[in-house]
């Protein structure tokens, strides 16, 4: 029973999975066989082993197993080859249909946009990514000729370009495509129309994940854009629904998370604000969302105020459920924990626990506070829906039901892409009642003997903060939490 929690930091992605663990290797003497560590003498089994291996039936069974494995591998290869052949045929059919349509109706026939877009999606699925981008761009060009420069019918093509750039690891290009998509929405609906709110929130979340995936000095650009879009989204929401409307809460939390990353960036790169010419060049496209690109730098206070507003809105809203309020307290506790303020964090967690007790929902209590959670959690503004609270623990691509159906690209796709294999280290980690990693035991490393993999994995865990497990309203330590660290 359990669920995974994914978190990306630099070139590392951590996957928390809860369940049974093999015995910790650190508890087994390294210079003795495992059977000796279990208190048994390996030599006492030697006669039985020799008898088994000398039995003809044993050799026959082994041969049959090897033959079965070979047949399974051959079947998998044949299926893969058949799939590739089918995909090649589909691509050739699309290209032939495009050629015929262009010869019949000319290069700007509206149907060509649909055919070329479908070709791009097929190329993308086959990992022919550069060709896919060309197809998406051509489809968008034909679409603009027919429907106009500002038509939102270009959105599927732009999203195809965004996703493909992310798969290629071209994050700056993906960010530029997002800006074009936002430009289209603003041209269609207006700068302050509430219909652009889902896209603003999506862009803000994506930029925070993009920063969190790398966090280099010049990645301050991502934080500036996130800061700007959340300020704009909050202003539009307040104008539309009022300052105390519950739709403000998710935006306030993501704004507070942006302040956390800005604070962390300032401490890591003390002089990151000096090259204003370079920053201004990168901020040109996003200038409308950030009137203060170099900000006030008092990020902790800004974030604390945003969290306090979120809690105040929830406490004053008679329609807010106990689960809604508890989730707000937990979010605030997580935020304080990121700043190493254990006291305020535990206080908020305990408030959440007391509120949840009123629901008598033991499954919800267990999901939110029954196991350690790695921080920062996946970013999801839809924090006030109980169902979203549960699913947000398992994936960073879950989205609000009010947002568009197109899945938001996740920066972790760069790590998990089939074209970029990742090594991994499986660890067992003890988590203290204050959410600090303690004893770290290596369970396995893949590939074996990978240069520096164990060291990198351990450093990543040491630098990671956790929400502690709670039992009967009190934080308690957890032993041997399984953590899988994927290393690019």
Describe what this molecule looks like in 3D.
The protein has 488 residues and is an alpha+beta fold. Among the domains are: 85-184, Serine Threonine Protein Phosphatase 5, Tetratricopeptide repeat; 421-487, TolA/TonB C-terminal domain (2-Layer Sandwich). Helices cover 57% and strands 10% of the residues. The protein has 18 helices and 9 strands. The chain has helices at residues 34-37, 46-54, 56-105, 110-125, 129-147, 155-168, 171-189, 197-214, 220-241, 248-268, 276-283, 299-316, 322-338, 342-357, 362-369, 386-392, 413-416, 453-462, and strands spanning 5-9, 12-16, 373-375, 423-431, 437-446, 465-467, 469-471, 474-476, 478-487. The chain has a 5-stranded antiparallel sheet with strand order 1-2-9-4-5. Strand 7 and strand 8 (474-476) form a beta hairpin. Helix 7 packs antiparallel against helix 8 (197-214) and helix 13 (322-338) packs antiparallel against helix 14 (342-357). The model is unreliable at 1-42, 283-291 and 378-421 (pLDDT under 50).
């Amino acid at each position: 029973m359990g669920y995974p929690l994914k978190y990306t930091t630099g070139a590392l992605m951590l996957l928390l999975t809860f369940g049974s663990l093999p015995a910790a290797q650190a508890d087994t003497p390294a210079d003795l066989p495992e059977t000796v560590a279990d208190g048994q003498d390996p030599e006492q089994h030697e006669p039985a082993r020799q008898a088994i291996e000398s039995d003809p039936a044993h050799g026959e069974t082994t041969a049959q197993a090897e033959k079965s494995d070979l047949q399974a591998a051959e079947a998998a290869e044949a299926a893969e080859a058949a799939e590739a052949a089918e995909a090649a045929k589909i691509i050739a059919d699309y290209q032939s249909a495009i050629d015929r349509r262009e010869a019949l109706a000319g290069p700007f026939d509206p149907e060509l946009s649909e055919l070329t877009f479908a070709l791009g999606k097929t190329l993308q699925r086959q990992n022919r990514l550069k060709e896919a981008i060309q197809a998406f761009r051509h489809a968008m060009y034909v679409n603009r000729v027919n429907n106009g420069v500002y038509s939102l019918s270009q959105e599927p093509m732009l999203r195809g370009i965004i996703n493909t750039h992310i798969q290629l690891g071209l994050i700056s290009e993906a960010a530029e495509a997002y800006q074009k998509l936002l430009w289209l929405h603003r041209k269609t609906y207006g700068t302050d129309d509430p219909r652009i709110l889902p896209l603003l929130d999506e862009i803000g979340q994506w930029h925070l994940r993009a920063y969190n995936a790398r966090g280099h000095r010049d990645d301050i650009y991502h934080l500036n854009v996130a800061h700007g879009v959340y300020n704009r989204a909050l202003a539009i929401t307040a104008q539309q629904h009022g300052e105390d409307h519950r739709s403000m809460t998710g935006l306030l939390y993501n704004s507070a998370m942006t302040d956390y990353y800005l604070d962390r960036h300032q401490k890591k790169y003390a002089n990151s604000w000096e090259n204003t010419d370079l920053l201004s060049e990168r901020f040109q496209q996003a200038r409308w969302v950030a009137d203060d690109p170099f900000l006030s730098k008092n990020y902790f206070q800004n974030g604390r105020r945003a969290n306090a507003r979120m809690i105040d809105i929830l406490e004053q809203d008679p329609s807010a459920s106990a689960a809604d309020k508890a989730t707000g307290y937990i979010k605030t506790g997580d935020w304080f924990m990121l700043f190493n303020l254990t006291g305020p964090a535990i206080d908020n967690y305990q408030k959440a626990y007391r509120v949840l007790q009123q629901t008598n929902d033991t499954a919800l209590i267990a999901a939110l506070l029954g196991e350690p959670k790695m921080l920062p959690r996946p970013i999801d503004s839809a924090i006030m829906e109980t169902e979203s609270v549960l699913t947000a623990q398992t994936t960073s691509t879950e989205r609000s039901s009010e947002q568009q159906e197109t899945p938001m690209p996740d920066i972790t796709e760069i790590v998990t892409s089939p074209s970029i294999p990742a090594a991994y280290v499986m660890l067992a980690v003890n988590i203290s009642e204050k959410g600090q990693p303690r004893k770290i035991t290596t369970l396995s490393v893949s590939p074996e003997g990978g240069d520096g993999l164990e060291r990198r994995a351990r450093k990543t865990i040491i630098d990671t903060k956790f929400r502690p497990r709670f039992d009967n309203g009190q934080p308690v330590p957890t032993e041997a939490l399984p953590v899988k660290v994927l290393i690019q």
